[in-house]
Design goal:
By secondary structure, the chain is α/β, with parallel strands linked by helices. The protein is built from twelve helices and twelve strands.
Protein backbone atom coordinates (compact mmCIF):
# COMPACT_ATOMS: atom_id res chain seq x y z
CA UNK A 1 0.00 0.00 0.00
CA UNK A 2 0.97 3.63 -0.45
CA UNK A 3 1.47 5.41 2.88
CA UNK A 4 2.13 9.16 3.19
CA UNK A 5 3.19 11.09 6.28
CA UNK A 6 1.76 14.50 5.43
CA UNK A 7 3.74 16.56 7.93
CA UNK A 8 6.68 16.15 10.33
CA UNK A 9 6.10 14.49 13.70
CA UNK A 10 8.85 16.37 15.53
CA UNK A 11 11.17 13.36 15.68
CA UNK A 12 14.70 12.86 14.40
CA UNK A 13 15.42 11.51 10.92
CA UNK A 14 16.97 8.46 12.55
CA UNK A 15 13.83 7.75 14.58
CA UNK A 16 11.60 8.25 11.54
CA UNK A 17 13.72 5.88 9.46
CA UNK A 18 13.61 3.28 12.22
CA UNK A 19 9.82 3.49 12.55
CA UNK A 20 9.28 3.32 8.78
CA UNK A 21 11.71 0.46 8.22
CA UNK A 22 9.22 -2.33 8.88
CA UNK A 23 6.70 -0.80 6.47
CA UNK A 24 9.27 -0.57 3.71
CA UNK A 25 10.54 -4.09 4.46
CA UNK A 26 7.00 -5.38 3.99
CA UNK A 27 6.91 -3.83 0.53
CA UNK A 28 4.83 -0.76 1.24
CA UNK A 29 5.54 2.60 -0.43
CA UNK A 30 6.29 5.13 2.32
CA UNK A 31 6.76 8.88 1.76
CA UNK A 32 7.35 11.48 4.50
CA UNK A 33 7.19 15.26 4.18
CA UNK A 34 9.42 17.39 6.41
CA UNK A 35 7.28 20.54 6.42
CA UNK A 36 3.66 21.34 7.14
CA UNK A 37 1.29 23.28 4.93
CA UNK A 38 -2.24 24.63 5.12
CA UNK A 39 -2.50 25.01 1.34
CA UNK A 40 -5.25 22.69 0.13
CA UNK A 41 -3.76 22.16 -3.32
CA UNK A 42 -0.40 21.24 -1.82
CA UNK A 43 -2.12 18.84 0.57
CA UNK A 44 -3.92 17.21 -2.37
CA UNK A 45 -0.59 16.85 -4.16
CA UNK A 46 1.04 15.26 -1.12
CA UNK A 47 -1.82 12.85 -0.52
CA UNK A 48 -2.02 11.87 -4.17
CA UNK A 49 -3.51 8.39 -4.42
CA UNK A 50 -2.31 7.16 -1.03
CA UNK A 51 -4.12 4.34 0.73
CA UNK A 52 -3.08 5.58 4.17
CA UNK A 53 -2.38 9.11 5.39
CA UNK A 54 -0.57 10.03 8.59
CA UNK A 55 -0.99 13.51 10.07
CA UNK A 56 -0.32 15.32 13.34
CA UNK A 57 -2.39 18.34 14.41
CA UNK A 58 -2.76 20.37 11.23
CA UNK A 59 -6.07 20.39 9.34
CA UNK A 60 -7.02 17.71 6.84
CA UNK A 61 -9.91 19.27 4.90
CA UNK A 62 -12.68 17.36 3.19
CA UNK A 63 -11.42 18.51 -0.22
CA UNK A 64 -8.19 16.63 0.32
CA UNK A 65 -9.94 13.51 1.58
CA UNK A 66 -12.38 13.53 -1.34
CA UNK A 67 -9.58 14.03 -3.89
CA UNK A 68 -7.70 10.93 -2.70
CA UNK A 69 -9.83 8.18 -4.24
CA UNK A 70 -7.76 5.36 -2.73
CA UNK A 71 -7.80 6.61 0.85
CA UNK A 72 -8.84 3.97 3.36
CA UNK A 73 -7.29 4.94 6.69
CA UNK A 74 -5.89 7.96 8.56
CA UNK A 75 -3.52 7.71 11.52
CA UNK A 76 -3.67 10.91 13.56
CA UNK A 77 -0.68 11.61 15.78
CA UNK A 78 -2.82 13.59 18.21
CA UNK A 79 -5.59 12.96 20.73
CA UNK A 80 -8.33 15.10 19.17
CA UNK A 81 -9.50 14.57 15.60
CA UNK A 82 -11.55 17.77 15.28
CA UNK A 83 -9.04 19.01 12.66
CA UNK A 84 -10.04 16.16 10.33
CA UNK A 85 -13.21 16.40 8.22
CA UNK A 86 -14.90 13.38 9.77
CA UNK A 87 -18.04 13.83 7.68
CA UNK A 88 -15.99 13.29 4.53
CA UNK A 89 -14.44 10.21 6.12
CA UNK A 90 -17.80 8.78 7.16
CA UNK A 91 -19.16 9.26 3.64
CA UNK A 92 -16.31 7.13 2.27
CA UNK A 93 -16.00 4.63 5.11
CA UNK A 94 -12.46 5.82 5.90
CA UNK A 95 -11.16 4.71 9.28
CA UNK A 96 -9.42 7.04 11.72
CA UNK A 97 -7.22 6.13 14.69
CA UNK A 98 -5.64 8.57 17.11
CA UNK A 99 -2.78 8.37 19.61
CA UNK A 100 -4.84 8.85 22.75
CA UNK A 101 -2.76 8.52 25.89
CA UNK A 102 0.54 9.73 24.46
CA UNK A 103 0.48 13.02 26.38
CA UNK A 104 -1.53 12.23 29.52
CA UNK A 105 1.42 12.95 31.82
CA UNK A 106 2.60 15.97 29.82
CA UNK A 107 -0.76 17.78 29.83
CA UNK A 108 -1.56 16.86 33.42
CA UNK A 109 1.81 18.13 34.63
CA UNK A 110 1.36 21.45 32.82
CA UNK A 111 -2.15 21.88 34.24
CA UNK A 112 -0.82 21.47 37.76
CA UNK A 113 2.15 23.69 36.95
CA UNK A 114 -0.13 26.49 35.76
CA UNK A 115 -2.19 26.16 38.93
CA UNK A 116 0.95 26.42 41.05
CA UNK A 117 2.06 29.48 39.09
CA UNK A 118 -1.29 31.15 39.72
CA UNK A 119 -1.19 30.26 43.42
CA UNK A 120 2.43 31.21 44.08
CA UNK A 121 2.76 34.04 41.54
CA UNK A 122 5.81 32.40 39.97
CA UNK A 123 5.73 34.40 36.74
CA UNK A 124 4.99 37.65 38.57
CA UNK A 125 7.80 36.94 41.04
CA UNK A 126 10.24 36.39 38.20
CA UNK A 127 9.23 39.68 36.58
CA UNK A 128 9.69 41.46 39.90
CA UNK A 129 13.17 40.09 40.49
CA UNK A 130 14.25 40.71 36.90
CA UNK A 131 13.08 44.31 37.22
CA UNK A 132 15.09 44.81 40.41
CA UNK A 133 12.09 44.49 42.72
CA UNK A 134 11.18 42.27 45.68
CA UNK A 135 8.26 40.28 47.04
CA UNK A 136 5.89 43.08 47.98
CA UNK A 137 2.34 42.20 46.98
CA UNK A 138 3.30 38.70 45.86
CA UNK A 139 2.24 36.59 48.82
CA UNK A 140 0.83 33.34 47.52
CA UNK A 141 -1.45 30.49 48.54
CA UNK A 142 -0.84 26.80 49.17
CA UNK A 143 -2.20 24.12 46.89
CA UNK A 144 -2.65 21.69 49.79
CA UNK A 145 -6.25 21.56 50.97
CA UNK A 146 -7.75 23.25 47.93
CA UNK A 147 -10.85 21.86 46.21
CA UNK A 148 -10.04 21.01 42.61
CA UNK A 149 -12.79 20.62 40.03
CA UNK A 150 -11.96 18.39 37.07
CA UNK A 151 -14.12 19.16 34.03
CA UNK A 152 -13.89 16.03 31.90
CA UNK A 153 -12.80 12.93 33.79
CA UNK A 154 -11.21 11.02 30.93
CA UNK A 155 -7.62 9.78 30.94
CA UNK A 156 -5.97 13.22 31.11
CA UNK A 157 -8.51 14.56 33.59
CA UNK A 158 -7.97 11.60 35.90
CA UNK A 159 -4.17 11.83 35.61
CA UNK A 160 -4.41 15.52 36.52
CA UNK A 161 -6.62 14.66 39.47
CA UNK A 162 -4.12 12.03 40.58
CA UNK A 163 -1.35 14.62 40.76
CA UNK A 164 -3.56 17.14 42.59
CA UNK A 165 -4.49 14.36 45.02
CA UNK A 166 -0.80 13.95 45.87
CA UNK A 167 -0.87 17.61 46.97
CA UNK A 168 -3.68 16.73 49.42
CA UNK A 169 -6.43 18.39 47.41
CA UNK A 170 -10.12 17.53 47.59
CA UNK A 171 -11.36 16.31 44.21
CA UNK A 172 -14.72 16.99 42.59
CA UNK A 173 -15.57 16.62 38.94
CA UNK A 174 -18.04 16.80 36.09
CA UNK A 175 -18.41 14.42 33.18
CA UNK A 176 -21.34 13.86 30.85
CA UNK A 177 -21.13 10.11 31.47
CA UNK A 178 -20.48 8.40 34.80
CA UNK A 179 -16.90 7.10 34.91
CA UNK A 180 -16.24 4.51 37.57
CA UNK A 181 -12.48 5.01 37.24
CA UNK A 182 -12.91 8.64 38.33
CA UNK A 183 -15.06 7.64 41.28
CA UNK A 184 -12.59 4.94 42.31
CA UNK A 185 -9.76 7.46 42.52
CA UNK A 186 -11.77 9.74 44.78
CA UNK A 187 -13.43 12.25 42.46
CA UNK A 188 -16.87 13.24 43.72
CA UNK A 189 -19.02 13.71 40.61
CA UNK A 190 -21.32 16.73 40.56
CA UNK A 191 -23.15 18.90 38.05
CA UNK A 192 -21.12 21.35 35.98
CA UNK A 193 -22.50 24.36 37.83
CA UNK A 194 -21.86 22.76 41.22
CA UNK A 195 -18.24 22.11 40.32
CA UNK A 196 -17.75 25.68 39.10
CA UNK A 197 -19.32 27.09 42.29
CA UNK A 198 -17.45 24.88 44.78
CA UNK A 199 -13.95 24.52 43.34
CA UNK A 200 -10.97 26.70 44.18
CA UNK A 201 -9.30 25.45 41.00
CA UNK A 202 -11.21 24.38 37.88
CA UNK A 203 -9.16 22.34 35.39
CA UNK A 204 -10.72 21.72 31.97
CA UNK A 205 -10.04 18.43 30.15
CA UNK A 206 -12.91 17.86 27.72
CA UNK A 207 -12.54 17.28 23.96
CA UNK A 208 -13.96 19.92 21.63
CA UNK A 209 -17.33 18.82 20.28
CA UNK A 210 -20.50 20.73 19.35
CA UNK A 211 -21.74 19.92 22.85
CA UNK A 212 -18.64 21.20 24.68
CA UNK A 213 -18.05 24.39 22.69
CA UNK A 214 -18.57 27.23 25.17
CA UNK A 215 -19.15 24.74 27.98
CA UNK A 216 -17.49 27.12 30.43
CA UNK A 217 -19.42 30.26 29.61
CA UNK A 218 -20.54 33.45 31.28
CA UNK A 219 -22.95 31.60 33.58
CA UNK A 220 -20.32 29.15 34.83
CA UNK A 221 -17.68 31.84 35.31
CA UNK A 222 -20.16 33.98 37.27
CA UNK A 223 -20.66 31.03 39.64
CA UNK A 224 -16.94 30.73 40.39
CA UNK A 225 -15.57 31.83 43.73
CA UNK A 226 -13.80 35.14 44.09
CA UNK A 227 -10.15 34.32 43.34
CA UNK A 228 -10.87 30.92 41.79
CA UNK A 229 -8.32 29.64 39.29
CA UNK A 230 -9.41 28.47 35.85
CA UNK A 231 -7.00 26.16 34.00
CA UNK A 232 -7.56 25.22 30.35
CA UNK A 233 -5.20 22.75 28.71
CA UNK A 234 -7.95 21.09 26.63
CA UNK A 235 -9.28 23.14 23.70
CA UNK A 236 -9.65 26.91 23.51
CA UNK A 237 -13.30 27.09 22.41
CA UNK A 238 -14.44 24.98 25.38
CA UNK A 239 -14.08 28.19 27.41
CA UNK A 240 -15.83 31.42 26.41
CA UNK A 241 -12.79 33.63 25.88
CA UNK A 242 -14.63 36.94 26.16
CA UNK A 243 -16.32 35.93 29.42
CA UNK A 244 -13.06 34.65 30.89
CA UNK A 245 -11.18 37.80 29.89
CA UNK A 246 -13.84 40.02 31.44
CA UNK A 247 -13.62 38.09 34.73
CA UNK A 248 -9.82 38.33 34.69
CA UNK A 249 -9.89 42.09 34.13
CA UNK A 250 -12.47 42.47 36.90
CA UNK A 251 -10.19 40.59 39.29
CA UNK A 252 -12.77 37.88 39.93
CA UNK A 253 -10.63 34.93 38.81
CA UNK A 254 -7.10 33.96 37.88
CA UNK A 255 -6.33 31.67 34.96
CA UNK A 256 -3.69 29.49 33.35
CA UNK A 257 -4.37 29.07 29.64
CA UNK A 258 -2.53 26.87 27.15
CA UNK A 259 -5.13 26.66 24.36
CA UNK A 260 -6.92 29.20 22.20
CA UNK A 261 -9.21 29.41 19.18
CA UNK A 262 -6.05 29.24 17.07
CA UNK A 263 -2.52 28.58 18.23
CA UNK A 264 -0.28 31.59 19.04
CA UNK A 265 0.89 34.00 17.91
CA UNK A 266 -2.44 35.55 18.88
CA UNK A 267 -3.95 38.46 16.95
CA UNK A 268 -3.28 41.89 18.43
CA UNK A 269 -6.92 42.30 19.48
CA UNK A 270 -7.23 38.94 21.25
CA UNK A 271 -9.10 39.39 24.56
CA UNK A 272 -6.42 37.63 26.60
CA UNK A 273 -3.57 39.90 25.54
CA UNK A 274 -2.75 42.32 28.34
CA UNK A 275 -5.11 40.60 30.80
CA UNK A 276 -4.08 40.73 34.46
CA UNK A 277 -4.22 37.61 36.66
CA UNK A 278 -3.37 35.42 33.69
CA UNK A 279 -0.53 33.02 32.88
CA UNK A 280 -0.36 31.93 29.24
CA UNK A 281 1.57 29.20 27.46
CA UNK A 282 1.54 28.72 23.65
CA UNK A 283 -0.19 25.32 23.38
CA UNK A 284 2.71 23.33 24.78
CA UNK A 285 0.76 20.99 27.05
CA UNK A 286 1.28 17.98 24.80
CA UNK A 287 4.79 18.96 23.75
CA UNK A 288 7.55 17.20 25.68
CA UNK A 289 10.43 15.23 24.23
CA UNK A 290 9.04 12.07 25.76
CA UNK A 291 5.46 12.57 24.55
CA UNK A 292 6.45 13.47 20.98
CA UNK A 293 8.55 10.33 20.64
CA UNK A 294 5.73 8.30 22.19
CA UNK A 295 3.07 9.58 19.80
CA UNK A 296 5.25 8.81 16.76
CA UNK A 297 5.60 5.21 17.89
CA UNK A 298 1.84 5.01 18.42
CA UNK A 299 1.05 6.61 15.04
CA UNK A 300 3.13 4.00 13.23
CA UNK A 301 1.69 1.26 15.39
CA UNK A 302 -1.78 2.36 14.22
CA UNK A 303 -0.68 1.80 10.64
CA UNK A 304 0.99 -1.57 11.14
CA UNK A 305 -1.99 -2.87 13.11
CA UNK A 306 -4.41 -1.61 10.45
CA UNK A 307 -2.40 -3.36 7.76
CA UNK A 308 -2.65 -6.53 9.83
CA UNK A 309 -6.44 -6.20 9.91
CA UNK A 310 -6.67 -4.87 13.44
CA UNK A 311 -7.63 -1.21 13.79
CA UNK A 312 -6.58 0.02 17.23
CA UNK A 313 -7.40 3.32 18.98
CA UNK A 314 -10.38 3.54 16.67
CA UNK A 315 -12.09 6.94 16.48
CA UNK A 316 -14.03 6.25 13.28
Amino acid sequence: MKIVLMEPLGISVETLDSLAASLKAAGHDFTAYDSFTLDVEELKKRAGDADILMIANHPLPGEVIEADKNLKFISVAFVGIDHVDTDACKARGIGISNTGGYCDDAVAELAVGLALDCLRNVTACDKSVQAGGGKAGLQGHELAGKTVGIIGTGAIGCRTAEIFKAFKCRLIGYNRSRRQSAIDMGIELKSLNEVCAEADIISVHTPLTPETKGLIGEEQIALMKQGAILINTARGPVVDTAAAAAALRAGKIKAGIDVYEKDPPLPADHPFLGCPNLVCTPHVGFDTRESIDRRAVMAFENVTEYLAGNQIRKML
